[in-house]
Write a structure and sequence with these properties.
Layout (H helix, E strand, L loop, with lengths): L3 H55 L11 E4 L2 E5 L4 E3 L1 H12 L8 E7 L5 E7 L15 E4 L1 E7 L4 H27 L14 E4 L2 E4 L4 E4 L2 E4 L2 H11 L5 E3 H8 L11 H12 L5 E6 L3 E6 L2
Antiparallel strand pairs: 1-2, 2-7, 3-6, 4-5, 4-7, 8-9, 9-10, 10-11, 12-14, 13-14
Helix pairs in contact: 1-2, 1-3, 4-6
């Protein structure tokens, strides 16, 4: 039909626009997630410095500096100090738990207090998002003044995993959307639409008036007999499909209680002759099976 290419073109443009929009949305969300991760990590480093600051105050030192926080691995940090200090394990546990509760990514972590001289562990504990899984020992024992470093290792968060799952999960969705649109836009051998009131059926460039038994193209009309019209109507509702001889005989004659006494081939032959002016429409014989109405674009 004349409008079919434009319709398909419009669908392709719409599909392309939709996929482009979804792709841009996914990329935007991905970068947004990455940006949020960077912000949370920067905020975490500030919280770690504050932990060092409060430890110095608890040690009675309000003058010396907390040295720059070092990120020694993906989720591992080291807090070091300008001078020696002492600490209470209870205060250290409470301070880290209180401050790191403000970090949305810090649900599980291990804290080790290391001796500067040999990196041996002077004190350590583990905090979990489930409080019953916390591992804390040696509470209430003040540690001697010495050069200490605070090593904090966080459990890997699901931020990057969630982002990857989001991106990878979106790809099948895009493919599914593309499949639906391409499938809906692909020409299929579906039965032509029949107008309920007028009985008009479109067969390629030809209009078949089933009620008035006519073929119409470019204003020219070809008359059909009652039987020819009934045969063509069966073909028209199943174009490009093989119709068995037994079905034609049953639906045209036997359903009316009349046994076929005339040759079906004779009616098919007459109908084929009336379709000769329309090269895009023809009835072909399928040997041993029946007939098929072929409609080409």
């Amino acid at each position: 039909m004349p409008g079919r290419p434009n319709l398909l073109s419009g669908k392709r443009k719409y599909l392309f626009g939709l996929i482009l929009f979804l792709f841009i949305s996914i990329i935007t969300v991905a970068f947004s997630l990455e940006g949020n991760d960077d912000f949370d990590i920067s905020r975490r480093e500030v919280l770690l410095r504050k932990i060092g600051h409060e430890l110095l105050l608890q040690s009675g030192d309000n003058k010396s500096r907390v040295l720059p926080v070092k990120k020694i691995a993906e989720n591992e940090y080291l807090i070091s100090f300008e001078h020696d200090l002492t600490f209470q394990p209870d205060s250290l546990v409470n301070t880290t738990r209180r401050l790191l509760s403000q970090d949305p990514l810090a649900r599980d972590y291990v804290v080790n207090v290391l001796n500067c001289s040999n990196s041996s562990v002077a004190y350590g504990y583990a905090i979990s998002k489930n409080k019953k899984d916390d591992i804390i020992a040696c509470m209430g024992r003040e540690q001697p003044s010495a050069c200490y470093m605070i090593n904090i290792k966080f459990k890997s968060t699901d931020g990057h995993t969630a982002k990857n799952v989001y991106l990878l999960g979106s790809l099948p969705f895009l493919a599914f959307v593309g499949f639906l649109f391409l499938r809906s836009g692909k020409p299929q051998n579906t039965p032509p639409r029949e107008e309920q009131q007028t009985g008009m059926i479109t067969l390629g460039p030809v209009l078949f008036d089933a009620n008035n038994r006519k073929l119409i193209i470019n204003g020219q009309t070809t008359e059909l007999t009652g039987t020819e019209s009934r045969v063509l109507h069966i073909f028209a509702l199943s174009p490009n499909e093989t119709i068995e001889r037994s079905r034609l005989q049953k639906e045209i004659w036997e359903d009316e209680g009349v046994i076929v006494g005339r040759s079906l081939d004779m009616f098919i032959s007459k109908l084929r002759k009336k379709l000769e002016p329309y090269p895009n429409i023809k009835i072909v014989v399928i040997r041993g099976k029946g007939y098929r109405l072929e409609i080409s674009a």
